[in-house]
Specification:
Number of strands of chain B: 2
CATH superfamily of the largest domain in chain A: MetI-like
CATH topology of the largest domain in chain A: MetI-like fold
Distance between the termini of chain B: 43 Å
Strand order of the largest sheet of chain B: 1-2
Number of helices of chain A: 14
CATH architecture of the largest domain in chain A: Orthogonal Bundle
Number of domains of chain A: 2
Shape of chain A: elongated
Radius of gyration of chain A: 34 Å
CATH topology of the largest domain in chain B: MetI-like fold
CATH architecture of the largest domain in chain B: Orthogonal Bundle
Strand content of chain B: under 5%
CATH class of the largest domain in chain B: Mainly Alpha
Oligomer: heterodimer
Strand order of the largest sheet of chain A: 1-2-7-4
Number of helices of chain B: 18
Chain lengths: 414, 401
Amino acid sequence: MADITPPVGTGPLAKREARLAWGLLFPTITAVALVVVLPLLAIFWISFKPVELGDLRAPEVVLREDLRGGPEVAGDEATIRYRLRNSSQEQQITGVTFNDVIPEGLQVVELDPRCTLDDRALSCDLGDWEPGLRDTLTIPVIVGQAYFDNDLRPQDSAAITTGASSNILTNSTFTLDNFKRIFNSDEFFEVLWVTLFYTVFGTIGALLVGLFAALLLNKSFKGQGILRGLYLFPYVAPIIAVAFAWLILFDPFSGSANALLIQMGVTDEAINFFGERPLALIMVTVFEIWRYFPLSFLFILARMQSIDTDMYEAADMDGASPFQQFWYLSMPQLLGILSVLFLLRFIWTFNKFDDIFLLTGGNAGTRTLTVNVYEQAFAVSNIGAGAAVAVVIFGCLLTFSLFFLKYISREEGL
Amino acid sequence: MRRGFITGPVIGALWMVILSITVAVAMSFATGQAFRPSILLSLLWGAAAGAGVVALGRSRMVQLGLLAAVTVLVMLGIGPMLTGTETSLFARIFGAALLGLSFAASITPILDEIEPGELTRHEFEGSVIRFLTGFGYIFFTAIVLIPFYVMVMTSLKNQSELIQNPLDFSIDFSKGAELFRSYDELFNQFNFGTYLFNSFFISVLTVFITLAFAIPGAYAVARLRFSGQAAFSRSILLIYMVPMIVLALPIYIAFSMTGLRNSFWGIVMIYPVTTIPVALYMLQGYFRGLPAEVEEAGLMDGLSRLAVIWKITLPLSLPALASVSLYVFMIAWNEFLLAFMLLDDPSKFTLTRGIASLNSSEIPRQHLMAGSVVATVPIMALFLGLERFMTKGLTAGSVKG
């Protein structure tokens, strides 16, 4: 009898299944690699480069062409003038050439030594250009009758220019200045502290308010569905709409909130909610809580509704009061989802950009790390420094994520 | 604390404070006239009313007495809510009656079971919970509705009305179609029709592209065995922990250099990639929950894997597809950061980018709010109509915030 052994290694069926799986995943992997992984690598690269916003436009040869001398009849003399310049004030362009077609009927009298003419095709080699260089090339011509007949002007044929310039993004200049710059500024620790305050209080606040809302709606009554939908409004509405609604509501000059507070005698003069130092940070945190409590509310409610009611009946029989039931029965059951929500919300609040950007633009002591990326890259026009802040954010996030993966069990369904 | 004559007045006083603030704010917003709660008087009268309810019981007569007492006190100007001198008589009567009615109707159920003398834990905590519940409903409804109310009402006013009395949100119906003037101007002068179309078009396209990528991916992760499956399903979560602003910077640079900035297709290329991980995550959770036996039966009958997905899995997961589509649509519709950074050409704006362009000192703010309403209403309508799918979908897989 031949030995019967279990199959070793992966059989052809398993291989085919794995091949199909990778085939199905391939489009997603490619897309994610292109838009997530590649930009992340780019961020690391850029953070070591002295890049300014202006450097993104590569230096190029700017060329203007016109015919001077105003010829009126055949036989008049005129000049074709090319005005050229280097668009960059900082970088040189090497090997500048340009090609153009001279319209029919223009007889070239004299040619610039840098140019050659083949039939009507003009090509010039202008060599290397220093930053900001301007040059003018004139070609005297005699105008023939064909020029007037054809109605073709020198400007009509676009001149083709070529030239190579070293791109700051791809050359081999590296620098640590970006990191030095952001770590050395006094601002950095304030930014860090603001981020921490916003993240911690925003997360905990949204969680507690969400818990409260879930407790309210954890019973069936008429209109529960409508209220549940209503309470999700802040989360579903476009961020830009609700942020501006808040700005208008709390406007120091014509905001209703201020008018209300003055009328109620709480304050004598209008409060600049989003413009004063400690208050603005508190307001953006309150906004964060307001906008994201629906999310915690939804998850906590879903968990609550899956708790068995028998337990509460038993507790009732044993004489446990409502508060005791909540604390000793509901809370332990909710602890899992609460901790998952805390970690997820913590990371997402840390990542949040739009809210603060729209409410205060990072002014009045509300600049978080993410707003700082934008501030450095676009307001100060220093892309490199912005990328360096982004790298710092990414570092923090990596730490959070490792923590997250280590402590969160997959049974929580997340 | 757990004695009827302490619990009753304390809860009564606090409840009166909450109601007088609520009614004063509501009346101010509704009429634009001066109403203001007096915390001290509220505490005083509320405590008296609480003690009265505990002592006299919760009969209809007591309720009517409370209603009359509160109304008269407010009218006399020494009640829990004060009115200004120029407040009209009608508004004053209405406000007073509203406060009296809401207080009388709600305080007796809250203080149900509260008797003079020692209370049991159940009786005491029951009334505290009813008090907190009442407070919770008022609080949440107020914080959710006020910003939206302000948004809608501001869009219907004009600049001078807004500055004259910021509290007045009453609508002057006599203006007729004039009311919607800012909407008219938005659509006729500011091209909001185009933006609306752009947003809609981009969002729908994003939904389809996302599904085309996410369905096969989710199926592979959920059903097929391959090495690296576990690692892959975990790393999906990690991907949506990467902040958009970090990605937006290189995307901006790449788009600037390749000329994709300011183009429709650039946006349509980027949006789905931000939503694919979420969609994939939500769908794979759902696919896992489907019975594998049905699919195996299909395989036995000679269908290929792809045919199984098309003919068995997808029809079974229509509810999940609906919620994922809705959610992806919402993300794409609300997306602001990428649209703001990548679009400069007004003819290609999405709604959110269009609203951002209205935020300047030269454009009156009712236009800004009208734009916000235009962006909010479709997504809200869609959402409320399909709320059941939405809540299920949101909790089925976790969600990016």
